[in-house]
Amino acid sequence: MPVIDVTPDLDALTLTITAEFAAPRDRVWDVYADPRKLEAIWGPPGYPATFVEHSLVPGSRCTYYMTGPEGERFGGWWLITAVDAPSSFAFDDGFADADLNPAADMPVSKNVYTFTERDGVTRAVFVSAYADAAGLQQVLEMGMVEGASAAINQIDALLAAA
User: Fold this and answer.
1) Is the peptide bond before 86 cis (omega within 30 degrees of 0)?
2) Is the model more confident about 82 or about 161?
């Protein structure tokens, strides 16, 4: 399994997930840069994602929804704040309703995804920072650790198929 560490830190208001992939950094980067590939792994198993808008360009907005097993839609959005391809990108990440309107009553996280390669193995560090402990606690209680880990663990199969 690619996920090698998960560290929620209520004092620092962060959730950090570290994963390693037996693939070059450019190939792992491409999973996030290509919306069709990203759709295959963004939702946990059984909740495939559909990206309606996607562009890894600072200032751009990405919108998506995950479809549950019974057809229910769970929306989300990103606001891309920085890109240093293929090393990292940063974005604000929030929840949205089924029509992809931002959900004002849900927490927004500031995220930095970093990719480094050594000897053909790519280490990805996914850091999500929250404005307050209540927001972090809310997503932890919603199953963010389990859902994000399951989603990331799908990347190996996608890379093997490519």
Assistant:
1) yes
2) 82
Whole-number Å distance between alpha carbons of 2 and 149 = 9
Contact call for residues 77 and 59 (beta carbons, < 8 A)? no
Comparing CA positions, the residue from 108, 101, 111 lying closest to residue 52 is 101
Q: In the block, which residue shows the tokens 């996607």? A: 54
d(CA 102, CA 94): 7
The CB-based long-range contact list for 92-96 (8 Å cut-off, 24+ gap) reads 93/128, 96/63, 96/65
Contact 47, 68 (CB under 8 A): yes
> Which structural domains are found in the chain, ordered by start?
3-161 (3.30.530.20)
Percent of the chain with pLDDT over 90: 94
The pLDDT confidence band at residue 127, using thresholds 50, 70 and 90, is very high
Give CA–CA dist 117/5, Å, rounded. Answer: 17
Distance between CA atoms of residues 142 and 76, nearest Å: 15
Are 93 and 61 a contacting pair, CB within 8 Å? no
How far apart CA 38 and CA 109 sit, in angstroms, is: 19
Local confidence band at 47 (pLDDT 50, 70, 90 cut-offs): very high
